[in-house]
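Supplementary Methods, section 5.1.

A reviewer requested that the exact input to the structure prediction be made available. We therefore reproduce it here, unchanged from the version used in the analyses.
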Amino acid sequence: NLIKKSRVFVDKGAVLIGGLDETGLVPEGCVFVQINKSGGSPGRDATRNKSLFEVFDGPIMVTKHPVVHPGDVRMLLAVDIPELRSHKNVILFSQHGSRPEADKMAGSDLDGDQFAVTWDERLFLGQWNGSVRHRSGTWTSALGEILFLQASTRTEDSLTLQRANKEPMDFVPDSPENILSGNQNPLESMLANAIILSGNQDPMESMVANATEALLGMSR
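The structure derived from this sequence is encoded token-by-token as follows.
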């Protein structure tokens, strides 16, 4: 219990509010991160001092803060976009892709949610544990995959990083087999059964009806 409840300080990390890259320049699977090097909350004068801030360019681990599921931890690629350097102490997600990266982390959105980020290579996931940074600026994963970190390879590099990620936690299963596997929590099971048994009825209405009937049965 003490280990689970203790807060471990990560020197190469930060907790940032998430935002959207409205310019569309951040590729899919990438983020823009620029933070205060001192680790504190700078005043107005310090915020204007560009030398106090650092833009990260390379693999970075991001998770919803606080994290509740292994699938909430994502390996993404931090990229330097000169047009976004006015944004400080935030993490900006890409607007590209079939599904927002924030949504993959416990269904988060960008209305004030916080995200923990770290660039400590010892904490990277899966095949990126033990990754090596070369003087040329490239990275080699534990499986020998290489990130070139060039503008022309950002999309390919971000896809390489995605292989280290676990599947995000989704509340609606893809098939009845997942429902019958016994791995769901009660809310997931209730919603899943409502979807399958509802027919033409709205799944949410069916779930509410089933929950109401169950509560009435308990009170009798």
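The longest helix spans residues 203-219. These observations are discussed further in the main text.
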